[in-house]
Design a protein that fits this description.
LRR_dom_sf; elongated; 347 residues; Leucine-rich repeat, LRR (right-handed beta-alpha superhelix); 14-stranded mixed β-sheet; Leu-rich_rpt_4; Leu-rich_rpt_typical-subtyp; repeat; two-stranded antiparallel sheet
Length: 347
């Protein structure tokens, strides 16, 4: 918009002219045989006609102003589709995209997981930061391996009975109170539940492939069921209400133990940690035991296997080298004989 003011010779404004210019239009050239189309940050308000894209496999529509999913029926070659950070309120008009493997609908205004039944090849699904209150609509997604539902309004873990291939499940920043209905997910290796309302850790013993569990910023006071058969490598209990830690010494594969910002005042925790042969990284700061002047030295001395404490290096990892073997007199003579001097060659 341009504004022009016209004044007379004595300085009195006579009139003001306002010229409204059309929005600047940005043109993007896309080849008809393109396999990857990236329209990130183009301030698109709607999805136009892309029927001429006959080979597209990856379509990125991140950071736009799109309110409705539409006009995608002809893009059946798509395997990867992203609508991250738009204004979409409803999951719809995706039935034709039967080859889709990755779908990202994070940072939108979606209230319900629905209309995904035809996407049976879907392996990765993101719904971060929406308004979802219930886990549902995933029954037909039997190939799903990665599910991200963080930062929603979910109160219960449920309706994952058919998603037996789930490998990574992210449910952080919701309103979940209990860890439940997961025992059938035998392939789960990562379970992330930070910033919920969990007070007791239980019902994870049956997850026999679980390697990482993230439980920071809950209200956890107790935990059970960390069975010795769990192949846990990372246990995150940061910023909870733990007063003591017991029965983790059987986690022989544990490499990372994070428990900063709790109420740990009992040095007996070191009796548990010293029995973990693979332990490498420990966080215990912002606990009562860390107020002691001798805290760091004591932890490093009692846990000779760790290399990082509270985010800083506490000892160098050992570097193994083969021992240096000195040559014997016989070996030296043999070498000299193989490379005779000029004098020794004279007859």
């Amino acid at each position: 918009m341009n504004v022009t003011s016209v004044t007379s010779e004595d300085g009195v404004k006579e009139y003001e002219k306002i010229v409204v210019e059309p929005e600047e239009i940005e043109y993007v050239e896309i080849a008809s045989d393109a396999k990857v189309v990236d329209l990130t940050r183009h301030r698109l308000k709607e999805i136009g006609d892309y029927s001429w894209l006959t080979h597209v496999e990856q379509f990125y529509l991140r950071w736009n102003l799109i309110k409705k999913i539409e006009n995608l029926d002809c893009l059946t070659t798509l395997t990867h589709l992203e609508f991250y950070d738009n204004q979409i309120a409803k999951v719809e008009n995706l039935d034709a995209l039967v080859n889709l493997e990755v779908l990202d609908l994070s940072f939108n205004r979606i209230m319900k997981i629905e209309n995904l039944e035809k996407l049976t090849k879907l392996k990765t699904l993101y719904f971060v930061h929406n308004k979802i209150t219930k886990i549902e609509g995933l029954d037909m997604l039997t190939e799903l391996e990665y599910l991200e539902l963080g930062d929603n309004r979910i109160t219960k873990i449920e309706n994952l009975d058919n998603n037996l291939k789930l490998d990574r499940l992210f449910l952080g920043a919701n309103q979940i109170r209990n860890i439940e209905n997961l025992e059938h997910l035998k392939n789960l290796t990562v379970l992330s539940l930070p910033a919920n309302a969990i007070t007791v850790v239980d019902n994870v013993a049956g997850l026999t492939k679980l390697k990482e569990i993230y439980l920071a910023q809950n209200g956890i006071k107790y935990f059970f069921g960390l069975d010795e058969n769990l192949p846990l490598e990372i246990l995150d209990l940061n910023q909870n209400r733990l007063e003591k830690v017991e029965n983790i010494h059987q986690l022989s594969t544990l490499t990372d133990f994070w428990a900063r910002g709790n109420k740990l005042s009992d040095w007996n925790i070191l009796d548990e940690l010293i029995r973990l042969p693979q332990l490498s990284c420990v966080y215990l700061d912002n606990n009562p035991i860390a107020d002691s002047d001798t805290y760091r030295g004591k932890v490093v001395r009692f846990l000779p296997q760790i290399h990082r404490l509270d985010g800083t290096q506490c000892r160098e990892k050992s570097i193994l080298r083969p021992p240096k073997i000195e040559k014997t007199a016989v070996e030296t003579a043999a070498v000299e004989f193989e490379h005779p001097t000029e004098e020794s060659q004279v007859v």
